[in-house]
Amino acid sequence: MSRGAIAGIYLAAGQSRRMGTDKRALPWGDGTLGAAGLKAALRSCLSPVIVVVPPADALVWIPDALLGHDKCRLVRCTACHRGLAHSLACGLRRAMEERADAAAVLLADQPFVTSDTINALAGLYRRHRPDYAAFSCSGVPMPPVIFGSPMFPALLALDGDAGGRTLFRDPHWHGLLYEGDASTGIDIDTKDDYERATIYREEKEGRPHGRR
Amino acid sequence: MAVGKSIIRKEAWDKVAGRAKYTNDFKKEQGMLHAALVTSPYAHARILSLDARRALAAPGVRAVVTGEGLPLTGEDMRDRPPIAFDKVRYYGEVVAVVVADTLVQAEQAARLVRVAYEPLPAVGSPREALKEGAPLLHEHLDRYEKNKTTYPEPGTNVAHRTKIRKGNIEQGFAESDVIVETSVSFAPSDHIAMETRCATAEIWPDGMIHISASSQSPFMIKKLLHTYFGEETGKVIVHTPLVGGAYGGKAPVQLELLAYLASKAVGGRKVSVWNNRECDMVTSPVHIGLEATVKIGATKEGLFKAMEILFLFDGGAYSDKAIDVSRAAAVDCTGPYRVDHVWCDSLCVYTNRPYATPFRSFGHCEQAFAVERAIDELARTLQLDPWDVRRKNAIRPGHTTPTQVRLTKSNVGNISACLDRLRELMRWDEWQRVEVDAYTVRAKGISSGWKTSTIDTDASSGVILTFNSDGSVNVISGVVEIGTGTKTVLAQIVAERLKMDVDCVHVKMDIDTQTTPEHWKTVASRGTFMAGRAALAAADDAIRQLKDIAACVLRASPDDLEVGFGRVFLRDDPAIFLPIKDIAYGYKFPNGNAIGGQVIGRGHYILRHLTPLDPETGAGKPGPEWGVCAEGVEIEFNRRDYTYRIVKAYAVIDAGKVLNPKAALGQAMGAMSMGLSFASREGFLFDNEQRVLNPQLRTYRPIRFGEHPEYIVEFVETPQIDAPYGARGIGEHGLIGMPAALANALSLAAGVPLNELPLVPELIWRTQEGDSYGSV
Fold first, then answer.
1. Does residue B78 carry a pLDDT above 60?
2. φ and ψ at B261, to 5 degrees?
3. Which residue of A87, A200, B243, B674 has the fewest CB atoms within a 10 Å radius of its CB?
4. Structure letter (DSSP) for residue B660
5. What is the secondary structure of B605-630 as a DSSP string?
6. Which of B409, B438, B318, B428 is nearest to B77 (CA)?
7. Through-space distance between the first and last CA atoms of chain B, rounded to whole angstroms
8. Average pLDDT, chain B
9. B776 pLDDT tier (thresholds 50, 70, 90)
10. Bridging pattern class, strands B460-467 and A6-11
11. Which residues, at least 6 apart from B664, have a Cβ–Cβ distance to it below 8 Å?
């Protein structure tokens, strides 16, 4: 692993509680919802891309082509039921094993994040070397976010469902925020979110959408 | 003939019929481009990069303008990039302007502009900004260009300090039996004019720059395009149609610069920049915030001996007009009272909040809130009647103002008379606080107010009168019709002087700076005074010309002639006359010979003897006269849930001479309602990072229909000898005393000093119950 590499941590170990069904496996264009963001991550400059999943995940949502991608690393996290912080820690430990200098946290339920966005964020991170570089919408930081290695201990110390958000508020850390429009950061938690996002994707792709 | 009558406004029919046109109504032009503003979601952040590639590739996009390489702007001190560069200093600051074929395209593309920010610690209030080690907003304060009367303090967040030193403050306090100190504060708020700010710009191939703007300062736009960008003033033409409310918010020049820059970026094509409500509230300049401490020394009879006043004005991120506002409050810091020993420091402080600009009353409702709350606290301490204390200290001719101007019978209104009348109207002596039932308390509060206008010492105004072939007259003046009815009053003044029917006096409502004589700015309640004097001069000029022509035809000396009733007639025998229509375009003799030509009256007025303030003592003459008012509020307060109802609002204003009673009443009541709305409901809420949480009318809630009290307005008439027919400015006075009067009434009702605005029930509850309830 070369110095300055940014690993991706693709968090796909949530329980889809509010969706009621495994949201990663919902249809999304030609593939699945969970695969959309992963595809973008693998296409981006991030390397490796660590996919954090629950221990017994059958992985039906990941096409073989992505799973077999040479940048893709699968981590089965036994502690994932204890909350987001633990999934993150699983991924982060793997990134540290791979001697990553920074880690980009990506969510499996943000299908509109593109490799361009990730690359732009990585470029900014490399140029300005902040403690973290986060995508933001109306000034609110959200994933994707790149954490520099000095922040790794603080991230590992998080507990329960606490994400990086608690660290953004800490004046000790100096962030860079990459302001973009709301659609890029859309995350899908509920059926309504999913339906709205599907309509939006179809509009974006220029396809007329049937009323559902 | 016309003066003193309630003449209906000249533009009234157009307005009520929906025909009246405002700046944004002219935009449906073929080929005009539209701009959308990309604004900062942070109050303080470094701009690390700005990527407009995707926006530029979006459909219909013609250009994306950024702040790189632009000159700094600002009226007193040039500290503001028209588009933020390198750093943003307030939430909502413009970081890029996207120009596209349609507004929708521009707004869609604006979302594609990618900006990387490094947030910096934000400064939230003037006191915070003055703390040692506070983040500096402007690291290079020493390098900014400024005018001679601006005194920034580099290395701090102080943009300007005005000092007032009159008498000997130590002596004043030594002579006092009691010293009472009161601190007040309120956050910035907004003007909420019905018409949001907008501007269009077009640069013709011959280099002529055409700007249309909803502005109080069309002539200033012309001047500033020269100062900032080196454009020849003769090549800049500014057009201002009717303006849908301004209240000071349209005095500064902001969007006009963006429209100009945008037009330049697209080869001179016409570009419209139009604020949506959210941008209008935070991106464009706001109503200034204040933190103040007032220390009054008085004898036990309540006679003022000394006042020590510290005003910390929240100028926001850029000083622009805030410097002027902070100075205006200092100039009149004591209120309309005789105080021999005065010490005042008024600071315009930088904070990471939207930058400030005048609000109707120009620093005076803010000044009055601080001092009039302090006076009530003093009265309470001394167990004196607050009305009595005010009356006892009322300023009179012969006394001097804080800037040591000696007052005369003409240059100050009669505050004693205003207070006396207020006392009668309010039935002050009958009761001031009554408990109606277990929960309901009624209470009254009062406040005095005064104001002079701190305007440029060389501000001038011009009027041109042209005649029509039917003998009617056109009045052309640079006063912008911002809803005050000034242009109708000018018609009345002209009609009165020419002794003609006001219906025969037509007014040009629009401003076109190429053809309209200049009126400095439509601010400071000086429209009627300055333009009125110019109109009188123009009328006199026209009268002289009419007499000259008539003298020739009638073979009489011009001295023997009079003008009036549509005629020029012999004073000695009015049966010998010429109709004005026969000579307005010159006179044609029966044999075809002609003399004269179109009669064009011209007049101008420049303020006299004004001086800048001495930097150490503040001595100087800042304005021509001091208008005064005494105001009161009656409220009904519910002690159980801390809500209240404003039952009645009173104002007694010295108008000098009421030129148009209904219009004057409208001005006074409108101002009172604004003052009550500001004091009771309006104010921006900021989070810890100084982001505005309520930049929309759903959450920022001005007074609404059905919430108004009964307004009771009367005028006192103490003529200002210099002014047209003695009239004083009255556009602002109705507002000055409202915040303080309301706070005084509520303080009395709730039994605790209420020194913050807006006076929402939660504030009263917090003040009464103590601050033990933390908030987010």
1. yes
2. -65, -40
3. A200
4. S
5. EE--S--PPPTTT--S---S-BEEEE
6. B318
7. 62
8. 96
9. very low
10. unpaired
11. B655, B658, B715, B730
Taking each helix axis from N to C end, the angle separating B486-498 and B532-554, rounded to the nearest 10 degrees, works out to 30
Range B477-493 average pLDDT: 95
Q: Which of A127, A167, A177, A200 to mutate to test the interface with B (most CBs of B within 10 A)?
A: A177
Round the CA-based radius of gyration of chain B to a whole number and report it: 27
Show the low-confidence residues of chain A (pLDDT under 50).
Answer: 1-2, 210-212
Tell me the one-letter amino acid at B231.
Answer: E
Residue A169 vs residue B233, higher pLDDT: B233
Q: How far apart are CA B509 and CA B530, in angstroms?
A: 17
Residues of chain B contacting A179 with CB distance shorter than 8 Å = 41, 114-117
Provide DSSP, B174-226. HT-SEEEEEEEEE--B----SSPPEEEEEE-TTS-EEEEE--S-HHHHHHHHH
B197 CA to chain A: closest CA distance, Å?
23
Is residue A163 within 8 A of residue A91, CB to CB? The reply is no
Give the rounded distance of the alpha carbon of A106 from its chain centre. Answer: 1
- Which residue(s) pair with B116 in the sheet? A178, B49
Q: Tell me which amino acid residue A105 is.
A: V
- Reported as half-sphere exposure (CB side, CA atoms, 13 A), residue B566 has a value of 13
What tokens appear for B84 in the block? 């933020």
Predicted confidence (pLDDT) per residue in B325-379, tens digit? 999 999 999 999 999 999 999 999 999 999 999 999 999 999 999 999 999 999 9
Q: How long a stretch of residues is chain B?
A: 776
Residue B447, Cβ neighbours under 10 Å: how many? 33
* Chain centroid to CA B139: 30
Average pLDDT over residues B515-544: 94
Contact state of A176 with B42 under an 8 Å Cβ cutoff: no
Q: So what's the pLDDT on residue B286?
A: 98
Q: What is the pLDDT of residues B5-17, one digit of tens each?
A: 999 999 999 999 9
Facing residue for B119 by CB, picked from A120, A124, A177: A177
Contacts of B45 (CB under 8 A, 6+ apart): A177, B87, B88, B117, B118, B119, B120
For B367-489, where are the E strands, in sequence order?
Answer: 433-435, 440-451, 460-467, 473-477
For an interface test with A, the pick among B47, B91, B114 (most A C-beta atoms closer than 10 Å) comes out as B114
